Amino acid sequence: MADSIPPKEEIVKPNPPASEASVQGFNWWRRTFQYKTGLGLTPDEKAQYENDYKYVLQRKQCQECYEYRDWLLKYSPTVIFMTQQIAKLNDKRTDVLKFDESKIICDVCPEWRSGGFHPELGILLCQNRIRDKWHLEDTMAHELVHYFDNLKWQVDWLNLKHHACSEIRASSLSGECRFMQEFARRGFSFKVSQGHQECVKRRATLSVMGNPNCKDEEHARKIVDEVWDSCFNDTRPFEEIYR
What we know:
One of its GO terms (cellular component) is mitochondrial inner membrane. By secondary structure, the protein is mostly helical.
């Protein structure tokens, strides 16, 4: 649950545009140029433009996020496999809501994270942090590992060792620590020799640092190290690590 779903009060959404005409056609472009140059706009008009722009952008991001989500649920081997494994666990449990696409929602997130998992609410995909469809695939796979772990082992997310173990597994199994993904994030500072394990440790440590029971980075790193061997080598439900 490293990337937990933020409270609704933390997400600030713009109001709808004053009129549909204000975000279409010539009027939109005229306002865009005025905003960029600072010419011809009063402070109130500038504030309204900023609100309209954010509204249109968020609407576009939301639509794209759901389109990507639906495509991945149909065609991504990793996502399909994980949803099938979750469905099998669901069949054995009568005390939890059944998994379906409604448990994966898109919304705006106030922080750097690209997704989050909540044991009662499901998976949140951060539409404003997703770079492309393949980034979303890794994000969904990561959160689906958390979903799987929560069903299979009834994880106590405030227990740092439980939390760290699921973070290690999610970062390792999701594909987000493949070489090209790390290179895209870190460029030439990424050392191939450190590779997959270094990426998993780093990302798991960052996630555990967000746990309210974690004191600081040193504490998070210590917890990750304590559970590393058993959790990194546990690739269930996969037969091996997906790279």
